[in-house]
Structures are given as structure tokens and as C-alpha cells.
Design a protein that fits this description.
Largest sheet: 2 strands, antiparallel
Strand order of the largest sheet: 1-2
Strand content: under 5%
Structural class: mainly alpha
Number of helices: 6
Distance between the termini: 18 Å
Shape: globular
Length: 122
């Protein structure tokens, strides 16, 4: 359970950092970032695998880089109904998706390292 909360906080922090770094993406508050992180997780679990399956041929041809396009479209979709979260265009969505993926990966590796250190102590 703590691992899940840590991943949620990493995702929210990733959204906040990307909103600070990219002028085309903005988040009104930390509360909105937490909501966006939850909804991003839900979309990533239920919708993203379906979209990846549907676009599998083009994803194979682009060696998986089309996944960033899918993530950008999901960011734009998320911004369309979450008030306080703005993605100003497709290319800002692509750059945001790349940044969020990198920050989530780094944050999740950090959480995994802390979790493995905690298990070693026991």
C-alpha cells in the first residue's frame, strides 16, 4: 500500500516539475496535480494498453516511439476535462509525455531502491 502511495506521489511530483519546466503545460495547484496523477494512472491501466494494441503496427515501425504520441494524446484528453490542468497543444503534450516518462522512471527507481534497502534491513 505504501508502495502505491509512493508511486502516486512520484507521478504527481513529475506533473508539477514538468509544469514548471514547460511553458505549454500548467497545473493550478498541488491538489490538481494529485488528481491528475490518479487519473493518469487510471488511463494508463485501462485505456493506454488498448490504444497500444490498436496502434501496434505503427508502434513496431517506430520502435515504440509512437507510445509518446499516445501519451501526448492522453495528456490532451486529461487536460480537456480536468480544470486547472492545461496542455496548450500537441507538441507540448509530446514534450510533457517524454518528461513525465523520464521523471516517473527516475522516481520509481528511487522508490524501488528505498524499498529494497528496507527489505535488506529486515
Amino acid at each position: 500500500m505504501i508502495h502505491l502511495v509512493a508511486k502516486w506521489l512520484v507521478a504527481a511530483l513529475s506533473f508539477i516539475i514538468i509544469a514548471e519546466l514547460l511553458v505549454g503545460i500548467s497545473i493550478a495547484s498541488t491538489y490538481i496535480a494529485l488528481i491528475v496523477a490518479v487519473l493518469w494512472g487510471i488511463l494508463s491501466i485501462f485505456i493506454k494498453p488498448l490504444l497500444i494494441f490498436i496502434t501496434l503496427p505503427i508502434n513496431i515501425l517506430t520502435f515504440g516511439l509512437f507510445t509518446f504520441v499516445i501519451n501526448a494524446l492522453l495528456l490532451l484528453f486529461l487536460a480537456s476535462f480536468v480544470e486547472g490542468f492545461v496542455v496548450e497543444g500537441f507538441w507540448w503534450g509530446v514534450w510533457g509525455a517524454i518528461g513525465i516518462s523520464i521523471l516517473n522512471w527516475i522516481g520509481n527507481e528511487f522508490v524501488r531502491a528505498l524499498d529494497s534497502q528496507k527489505k535488506d534491513v529486515r
